[in-house]
Every structure is written in C-alpha cells, then in structure tokens.
Amino acid sequence: MSYKQSLLFEFRAYQRPFRQTLNTRYGAWTHREGIILKVTDGQGRIGFGEVAPLPWFGSETQAQALAFCTQVPQRLSLCSELAILSTLPACTFGFEVALGNLTRDIHCADLKTDRYSALLPTGQAALSAWSGLWAIGHRTFKWKIGVAPVAVELAWLSQLMERLPLGAKLRLDANGGLDELAAHHWLDHCDRLSHRIEFIEQPLPPDSFKELLKLSHRYSTPIALDESVTTLDQLKTHYFRGWRGIYVIKAAIMGSPSRLKQFCRDHPIDIVISSVFETDIGRQALIDLAVELQSLLPNAPRRVLGLGTQQWLPNDGLDDPDWEALWQRLT
Ligand SMILES: [Mg+2]
C-alpha cells in the first residue's frame, strides 16, 4: 500500500455491548470490539476506516490489531510503504478503506431495507422475532442452526415457514456445526420447501470440502461456504478446486478489498457480502464494495446483503453516518 503525501494517522478503539448476547456455535458473544482509523492529508482531507476483527474466524485479535496500530507512526512519511502482514487481514481492510476514503467523496447510497437480510435470534425465539423485522421492510431472514437437536430445530423450521409470509426468504447458517447425517436431514427438508430456503450456509466444517461438494451436487437447495473461505487465498483455493456454489464474503476480515475485486473481475463467482457487526464506517465500505462487485459480476445472482445486524447493537452513536461525530464519541 503506498501513498504520495504526508498523512496524520490517528486511531481510537471502541467497545459495544450487544443488546442481547449473540449465541453462536463458538459460544456467547457479548461485546463487539474494534478500532476506528483516521487519516488526514496536507489539504485537510479526512479518510476514516475501521478494523473489526473476528479471531474465531481466523483474523487477528483486537489486542494484535491495537499493537499494530500503536506502532504505525503518527506521521506517515511521503511515498512510504505501509507493510501489513497477511496475518492482520482486518487491519489491511481498515487501512485500505481509510486511505481510499481520503479521496472518495461520494459513497453509494444506503440501500432499501429489503436489500439486507435480517439476523433472527437463535432457536425458538426466531418464531416471533421475524414479524417486527418484516414490518420495517426486511424480506430475507437469517437463522443460526445446529444449536439444538436436529428434530427439534426442524420442527421449529416448519413452524417458522408456516408463519412467514410467502414473499419471505430464509437463509440457514450452521456455522460448520452439522455432521453428515444431520446435513442430509436438513437439505432433504429444505428441498421440500420449494425454494423458500435461499441457501444453507456452511453445513459441515471447513475441512469437509469433498463432502460439501457432494452435498451441493445432490440437493437443489444451494450451499454457501463461509468458514471455509475466510481469507482470499482460501476463497481462491476453493474456486480452483471446483466450488461453484455461493461464497459468503466477510469483507472486513478478508484483507484487501482491491485484491478481492481483482479476483472477482477474472473469476465470476456467486457471492453474499456479509457483516461482522461493523460501525457505520465499515458498513458503508461493505455497501460500496457490494455495489462495485455487482458491476464486476453482471451475471451473478443479485443476493441481498448480510448486513441486517444493527438491531443487535446499542444506540451509542457508532452507527452515525456523520463520521466526525462518530469519532468524537470515542474521545
Ligand atoms: Mg456464516
């Protein structure tokens, strides 16, 4: 990454408690931690970026990201090179976005609510939680599975599908937590729901590539890879090994957005851009990236963005589209 002028670099860490603990297969998640980056050039132009690590998905930890930011000089000298290791993908993303935002005046407008999927609470709570999200315009919902016995969850799914209006679509996310038998049960069940299940995400663990491929050939319900493809190198490997299903892109932990765009330019893939609970700064970067990728992938299915996560976070000012105000909150 290079830049041609002297920049002032600053950063501030944030911590946000989730309104409700997020129960995942990796355990309970209570706080989102991250870092806001700010670069200012000699002409007073400002670029904000965000580092939002997700260590259990293979990114650096918040402590490692903070250690990196602390050793970046406050004055970045003319034409210097900022070397960021590939072991720091969230930092790589944050710095590239911040430097890009220095010269980027216009952001893509926020999309309508129906262009985002909304994350439902895990388990039986989903059966009633969808209606408020439907009322504010969401039409695609995401539900984490693999946290209760298959028979119990399939019964909940049947109830959920009876209650959801016909225009609704459901994404299921197993976070790699099913065994092969359970995956067959789920996919068989989903195939009988006449395409109301948009896809099932990561039914098996990342080391089960051959089994995942077999499942994708056997069932009509599409399968999306997420944990299997947390880095751009993993994404490329899966593409060259023959994965033609969906790729979930958690761009904020995938490293350089420009390298991702370069790959997609040459290799048309079916993607879903997905949030890792960023502030408005990271969120806007994902919207811009999604719009750019859509123009690079004109024939790919138009999948709604996995960004419907704001209802999980507090009203703490970090979703403010006025980024200077957002920054001031962190003093
Ligand atoms: Mg997932």
Automatic annotation (TrEMBL):
GO terms of molecular function: magnesium ion binding; O-succinylbenzoate synthase activity
Keywords of the record: Lyase, Magnesium, Metal-binding
Ranges in coiled-coil conformation: none
Ranges of residues in domain Mandelate racemase/muconate lactonizing enzyme C-terminal: 123-222
KW DNA damage (keyword) present: no
CDD domains with a match to the protein in the record: OSBS
UniProt-listed HAMAP family: MenC_1
Name recorded for this polypeptide: o-succinylbenzoate synthase
Active site as annotated: K144, K250
Organism (species): Phormidesmis priestleyi
Cofactor(s) of this protein: a divalent metal cation
